[in-house]
């Protein structure tokens, strides 16, 4: 067993005291990247994960690959892109259940109080275990937008994400995984309202469409404070990407479970077909996937 870092058990408060000052310094770099971050706020993808005809055309060099959707890129100037993005936002992310395995203290263990939970790469457990979840690589980027302020970037907010492993099991809860905390982590939004996690493609289990859970907090310092949650929702993954991933070794149980639930019959996404939670996904099994979603709160 790897010897834990001497500060591994000092809690989230210790992590934040050493992390926030550095991140806030980086946060002042609010420049031309804003337009790029908000460009994805053009009209969204349809329920199949294919960009609608009203979106801007992607550059010729951008092509969708295996089981993917090509993200729309702006062709107008940065100024007009930002104006258009602000005008077309306004639909807040649907509120959803935390689910039975949140690990935030509302139903059993609270990983948010553990030192090490603030991280970009969530594939491995932290603390006394270093077990790594196996699976097809997935990079998840969320762009947080403030609906009350014209969908401006929600800089400084924090997001906690968690999801199941390739077998549809959750760390901290499922049998044999009670001492693991992989596929869980917290990040702070930058000046563009963006944050990114490196993880693996979640598996599928009976009764649910493949998804990723997340909570949005007002700030990093409020991630463990009751009443500071701005939104609780889930990211829906696209059918094409799921089929490609679940055809690979290690996802055998997901391949069996995936056909049993559709996006529209899912008890979370079924009310609106998941159109506001369906990620834009690109990539391939060989090279890994990227998933992006605008989250308006």
TrEMBL record:
<dbReference type="GO" id="GO:0008199">
    <property type="term" value="F:ferric iron binding"/>
</dbReference>
<dbReference type="GO" id="GO:0016702">
    <property type="term" value="F:oxidoreductase activity, acting on single donors with incorporation of molecular oxygen, incorporation of two atoms of oxygen"/>
</dbReference>
<keyword id="KW-0223">Dioxygenase</keyword>
<feature type="region of interest" description="Disordered">
    <location>
        <begin position="42"/>
        <end position="77"/>
    </location>
</feature>
<dbReference type="InterPro" id="IPR015889">
    <property type="entry name" value="Intradiol_dOase_core"/>
</dbReference>
<dbReference type="Pfam" id="PF00775">
    <property type="entry name" value="Dioxygenase_C"/>
</dbReference>
<protein>
    <submittedName>
        <fullName>Intradiol ring-cleavage dioxygenase</fullName>
    </submittedName>
</protein>
<keyword id="KW-0560">Oxidoreductase</keyword>
<dbReference type="InterPro" id="IPR000627">
    <property type="entry name" value="Intradiol_dOase_C"/>
</dbReference>
<feature type="domain" description="Intradiol ring-cleavage dioxygenases">
    <location>
        <begin position="132"/>
        <end position="208"/>
    </location>
</feature>
């Amino acid at each position: 067993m790897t010897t834990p870092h001497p500060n591994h058990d000092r809690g989230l408060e210790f992590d934040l005291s050493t992390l926030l000052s550095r991140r806030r310094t980086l946060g002042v770099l609010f420049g031309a990247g804003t337009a790029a971050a908000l460009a994805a706020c053009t009209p969204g993808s349809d329920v199949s994960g294919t960009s609608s005809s009203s979106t801007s055309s992607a550059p010729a060099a951008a092509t969708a690959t295996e089981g993917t959707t090509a993200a729309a890129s702006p062709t107008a100037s940065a100024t007009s892109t930002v104006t258009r993005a602000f005008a077309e936002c306004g639909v807040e992310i649907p509120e959803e259940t935390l689910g039975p395995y949140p690990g935030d203290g509302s139903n059993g263990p609270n990983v948010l109080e553990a030192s090490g939970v603030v991280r970009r790469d969530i594939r491995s457990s932290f603390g006394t275990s270093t077990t790594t979840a196996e699976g097809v690589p997935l990079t998840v980027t969320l762009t947080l937008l403030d609906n009350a302020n014209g969908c401006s970037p929600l800089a400084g907010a924090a997001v906690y994400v968690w999801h199941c492993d390739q077998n549809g099991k959750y760390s901290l809860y499922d049998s044999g995984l009670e001492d693991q905390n992989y596929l869980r982590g917290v990040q702070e939004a930058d000046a563009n309202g963006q944050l990114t996690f490196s993880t693996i493609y979640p598996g599928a289990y009976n009764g649910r469409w493949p998804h990723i859970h997340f909570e949005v907090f007002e700030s990093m310092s409020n991630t463990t404070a009751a009443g500071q949650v701005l939104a609780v929702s889930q990211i829906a993954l696209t059918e094409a990407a799921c089929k490609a991933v679940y055809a690979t070794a290690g996802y055998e149980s997901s391949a069996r479970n995936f056909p049993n639930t559709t996006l529209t019959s899912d008890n979370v996404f079924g009310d609106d077909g998941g159109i506001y939670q369906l990620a834009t996904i690109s990539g391939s099994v060989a090279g890994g996937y990227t998933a992006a979603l605008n989250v308006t709160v």
